[in-house]
Fold this sequence. Notes:
The complex is a heterodimer of chains A (569) and B (596).
Chain A (H helix, E strand, L loop, with lengths): L5 H15 L3 H38 L6 H44 L14 H14 L1 H24 L3 H49 L1 H7 L2 H53 L5 H14 L6 H23 L19 E8 L9 E8 L4 E6 L5 H8 L7 E6 L2 E2 L5 H7 E5 L9 H6 L7 H10 L3 H6 L17 H15 L3 E5 L7 H15 L3 E5 L3 H4 L4 E6 L2 E7 L4
Parallel strand pairs in A: 3-8, 3-9, 6-7, 7-8
Antiparallel strand pairs in A: 1-2, 1-4, 4-5, 9-10
Helix pairs in contact in A: 1-10, 2-3, 2-5, 2-9, 4-10, 5-6, 5-10, 6-8, 6-10, 8-9, 14-16, 16-17
Chain B lengths: L9 H15 L3 H34 L8 H53 L3 H43 L1 H10 L2 H36 L1 H6 L3 H53 L5 H19 L1 H23 L20 E10 L10 E11 L4 E5 L6 H8 L7 E6 L2 E2 L5 H5 L2 E4 L8 E2 H6 L7 H10 L3 H6 L7 E2 L8 H15 L3 E5 L7 H15 L3 E5 L11 E6 L2 E6 L1 H7 L2 H11 L3
Parallel strand pairs in B: 3-10, 3-11, 6-9, 9-10
Antiparallel strand pairs in B: 1-2, 1-4, 4-5, 7-8, 11-12
Helix pairs in contact in B: 1-10, 2-3, 2-4, 2-9, 3-4, 4-5, 4-9, 4-10, 5-8, 6-8, 6-10, 8-9, 14-16, 16-17
Amino acid sequence: MRIARPAARHRALKWLMALTRPYLGWMLAGVGLAALVILSNVALLAVSGWFITAMALSGLTGAVINYFTPAAAIRGLAISRTVGRYLERLVTHEATFKLLAGLRQWFFEQLEPLAPARLQYLRGGDLLSRIRADIDSLENAYLRIFSPSLAALIASLVMVIFLLFWSPAIAFTNLMGLMLAGVVLPLATLKLGLHSGKAMVEARADLRQRTSETLRGMAELTLYGNPSQRILAIQTENTALITPQRQQNRIDAISSAAIGLISQLTWLGVVVLAIGLVQSGVLDGPSLVMLTFFAMASFEATAALPLAFRAWGETLSAANRILDLVDAKPSVTEPSAPQPAPLRFDIQFTEVRLRYPGAMNNALNDVSFSLPQGQKLALRGASGSGKTSITQILLKFWDFDAGTISLGGQNLRDLSGDTVRGLCAVVSQQVHLFNTSIAANLALAKPNASQEELFEACRAAAILDDILALPDGFNTLVGEAATRLSGGQARRIGIARALLKNAPIVILDEPTEGLDAVTEEIVTTALGRLLIGRTAIIITHRPKLLTLADQILTLDCGRVIKHINQSKL
Amino acid sequence: MANSPAPQDKAHTRTLDLWLRARGKSVKSPLNIAVALGGMNGFFLIAQCWLLAHVLNDTAINHHPLASVWGYIAGIVGLFLFRAGLNFAQLRFTFEAGARLRSDLRSQLFEHINNLGPAFSRAQRSGAIATEVVDGVEALEKYFSLYLPQMQLAIIIPAAILVFVFPFDWVSGLILAITAPLLPVFMMIIGKQTEKLNQEQWQSLARMGAHFFDMIEGLTTLKLFGAARREAQFIGKIADDYRLQTMKVLRVAFLSSMVLEFLAALSIAMVAVYVGFRLMYGDIHYLNGIFVLLLAPEFYLPLRSMGTQFHARMDALGAVEPIIDLLNTPLPPQRSGLNTLSLNAAPTIRLEHIHFAYPAPTGSSAPPTPVLQGLNLTLTAQTQTALVGASGAGKTTLSQILMGFIPLQSGEIWINDTALSSLTPAAWQAHVAWLPQNPSLFHGTLAENIAMNPADINLQALHEAAAAAHALEFIERLPQGFNTLVGDRGQGLSGGEIQRIALARAFYKNAPVLILDEPSASLDLESEQLITEAVARLSVGRTVLVIAHRLATIEHSAHIAVLDRGHITEQGTHAALIARHGAYAELYRQYRSAGL
């Protein structure tokens, strides 16, 4: 595993600071209010203690006392504690939401040039949920870390300075207690828990993996293995998760008890010191009681620190992962002087070679073909043979290492990615439909499409009747969708979207894979309409689609092993 | 900020709450102990305040020297230590309660998944279930370790404090008591507020998060349509709109918790002021006054931290729903007997009048989808029968029924003269080997993955099986050989190698009945040849059913059956079927013309 170098830590910290800068005003206001709440509470109890003792003494001795000021102060502090808390919550939430909006937009903008080449693992869902958690902990960094720690720091400073006016020894004792309970013990706990924390994360991932492989392989386990043994194995994995958790719980329980004990011993120490000062005549009775309450309440300042420290490590690694992700270099460099879009759409590959970073073998080895405008090229071959690589480099999602590709007589490298992609419509096995209405999903291809155009495209894609049969028609939300739209329907919406785009080049990536026979028939017919008059590259194994092709290119390990040109027959 | 969706409505929330509480009964004793420990802690806190009141009374009012109060101070230190122990024990007990509950629930979930069998697992997204079983169950932890015990302590501790305050100063007791009946009211207010926050804010936050990640997932699509940069502006704008809208709600929502804070602060202030004045007039003793003032903040402390507990509850409610759904998935009706089966040679298998329909999804009024409709087919002993048909014709369903994964709905399968329905599923499955289209590997060594029974591996047979499946060559090239660890997606192994491991599994099992799902067309040419050759050898002397997805490899099958809409429409040899010019001949022509 990689250990974070100091530079990396520094980088994350610097970045976090830059990220929060625009909202600094709100954030500092939130911190100030949080400190105010803590101090009001401490002052409320301290003044109360002073007040009742002074009143008792005046009752006993008959001394005259100004009770208006402290009584008013007590009420005032009660109000400032309450109102301060209310405002603090509003301000910190406002700051958090502002941070959230900024962070998300920033992240999306950084990610955009990297897709899909550098993000190809996103599909797996693992990285996506990782990103989700990372963005989440960054968004909460202010609420969970910055605000409580800064407020604790400010409040502690003010309190210690206040105590210095009474007695350096008391101030020192209280400061030590605050440091121990707020910083030293939580840090020690973190360090002690490092081992079990790592074990917990690993055990959880193991258990997750074991569960999903059991589900995936249930049929084989039933036929070949012993499922009850499998259950036992998973129970062992569960124990492997509980054991480090128990260890962690022991550490946490000890730490919690110890922090409680330290703070209590601290205020008791303050009481003993103050009693000594009363004896020597430096302090009076009411001050003794005031200092007692003061020290007792002072530990509210550090109460949130253990959790803040825990979140800190998490946030730092989240920041580093996010930075690693967005720091990746885009795989395609845009031309410095992009040429305008070509007017012809024939595609020519000449000895194109491609090797993915870190791969042992070339993904494409001297691939050549010539596809005249309006013709269809089918690509066949095992997975990993290079079919998808051809479409990825044509779409300028990846750069190739050698050879030339020309599009309508222009060198592909002289065209910008946006220009090339503007000329292509893609329908793949997995059509991504966004969590919004069907209409909005279609409008992606043509934002100003008229209703007639929408209807026409959907009719050609053989999806119009399906859409109109839905209770909300085109306004049906695709959100809860996987259930409401079948795979075949989603693909036909993808086809309608491609039709709306009305691009001269069509790229199909196994568009009928995994469909049942009837649906395949419908989708194939719809695809036939999309292909009319367009230049197309089709990745497929299905006989029906293959009959639409003019040329069939069979690939194996990045090499063309068979090239059938039916148009010449 | 939101990780799990919030429950939808109140009645529903209540059902989930009741389910969780019912589960909590199974760990009643550790939870009760934890609450008792917390209660004791509260009691000793009162005692501690009482001793401290004495110290302050003696020194601040009566000016006794420090030496005279050491006894009290020693007592206080003793209580500190004792309470620290109680605190530790309480945390340990709540953890153990939660841990046991999670383990039990997980076992139950696994058992249920296992009982639901392969037919259920096939239809699930394994990742989603894994998340429910692992992370969903984890999310319940705090409901039991935090929410349930703290809810009880939030009533017990203030009540105990009140009992002690009254005899010492009835006015302060009254001030606290007036707010006491409001406690349940406040709990409800806070509970409702959190719920409301959940339903309105949390949900729209979750929606916004979903939109954001939806955009990231669909980034390639956005780029293809040149819409990515436009969306980036949108994301910022949506989040900003959300902020404005949410803050409007929060401004009101936070008010209700402010009322609680306000009452707590005001009561303390009132106690201080009233006690102060009555001390001045000599109405009460200082000892009593200071004792009451020390207790006042503790009275409200459990309530003020209630918000955290409610959040723990909402997290659990969000996570528990899919868990309950999974546990409530009904087991398929069983049609199996108790007999066992012994076979000396590969049997003849007759499928008679097999009907099968998938039930409509729950809540739908649609009729069940029929798949097999009175299918008849004989698999002759020791020969290979190939099943051909368009995708969706029912080939997979038939093989699932034949392997005993889906119970028969009607009709019967005869193994020689034994009815399948008279056997236990396991008795029949012991005689069946299966080569799936996409074989699964499991975390473990290659040896374990071939033998599939880590307790009992016959090394000799293992080597022979691997050699027969053409797997030995590449296994021996690996530095760890048969002890090489592989993961569930077969890290480091190619598709062809995984297929050969699965073949070795079938050779190792050496079962008389073999079901072959033709591998999908994603193998390199060399692997394909090796596998075809090995499969031919594996088939010798066994009763074999080949589920054919392509036609090239089955031309030489002894018997070919064409499945169409739940019936066998044609059967015979390749030559005979071609001569018939029927569905098979047409299918064959299509594949040929496509160059396959």
